[in-house]
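Structure in, sequence out. Go:
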């Protein structure tokens, strides 16, 4: 099978603040694969390494060891320039903390990646996407003037405008009300129908149960995998992971 994301034996360690302590192992030998058009969710207790895993398999962070290939390109052997190109053309990343530029209005934040990669900007498309997301504020408003949920919608729109082949989303609907959560989830689901691969970290078991595959991370290891999981199955798996998590 052809994988659009193929990560093998990913380990990530960081130096402990206390020099006498050994390195902290955040990820321990994780293998992760996903295909075009697949919607994969990653769940796990707080601190289990979900964000670190997403950053490593998307090329935002270099793993301590292991290989990541995205759309046939090996990230380990790519130069910073090649990685930057891959991030511009193939990958989108929705940050948990939004990462909006405070000096730019919502609209300019959304189209910034298009501007940076000299792509055509269609104001109508931006407006339509934000209407689909039920965005209540004005696109001329600055991030500081927006609620957390509205900032999150801007961050998601910025990622989707790039028409990437792979979208990595770190808790994309965390700050949203239930209607907005559903709207964003439906949009991501729709993109997978066009062959986009979505890899989403979430605490939302109901949403995860609507993805194609769910992976449970515990103490830096992928410990369980469910294809077309039910809410009940995921609840039980998370309960177990939280109980035995060190
Ligand atoms: N640069 C770093 N230096 C030291 N420790 C780190 C670093 N990055 C992450 N960690 C630690 O590694 C563990 C995993 O962090 P990570 O953010 O990946 O977990 P998570 O599962 O996404 O957590 P949450 O659900 O709370 O967002 C945590 O204990 C965190 O404190």
């Amino acid at each position: 099978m052809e994988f659009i994301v193929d990560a093998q034996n990913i380990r990530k360690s960081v130096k402990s603040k206390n020099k006498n302590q050994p390195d902290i192992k955040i990820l321990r030998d994780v293998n992760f694969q996903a295909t075009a058009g697949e919607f994969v969710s990653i769940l796990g207790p707080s601190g289990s390494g979900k964000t670190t895993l997403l950053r490593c398999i998307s090329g935002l962070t270099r793993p301590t060891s292991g290989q990541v290939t995205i759309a046939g390109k090996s990230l380990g052997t790519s130069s910073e320039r090649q990685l930057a190109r891959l991030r511009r053309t193939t990958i989108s990343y929705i940050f948990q903390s939004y990462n909006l530029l405070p000096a730019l209005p919502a609209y300019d934040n959304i189209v910034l990646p298009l501007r940076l990669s000299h792509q055509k900007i269609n104001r109508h498309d931006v407006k339509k996407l934000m209407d689909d997301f039920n965005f209540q504020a004005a696109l001329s408003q600055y991030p500081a003037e927006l609620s957390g949920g509205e900032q999150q919608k801007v961050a998601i729109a910025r990622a989707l405008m790039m028409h990437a082949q792979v979208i990595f989303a770190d808790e994309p609907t965390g700050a949203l009300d239930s209607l907005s959560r559903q709207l964003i989830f439906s949009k991501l689901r729709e993109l997978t129908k066009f062959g986009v691969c979505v890899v989403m970290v979430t605490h939302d078991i109901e949403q995860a149960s609507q993805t194609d595959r769910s992976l449970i991370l515990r103490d830096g290891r992928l410990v369980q995998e469910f294809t077309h999981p039910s809410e009940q199955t995921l609840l039980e798996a998370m309960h177990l992971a939280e109980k035995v998590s060190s």
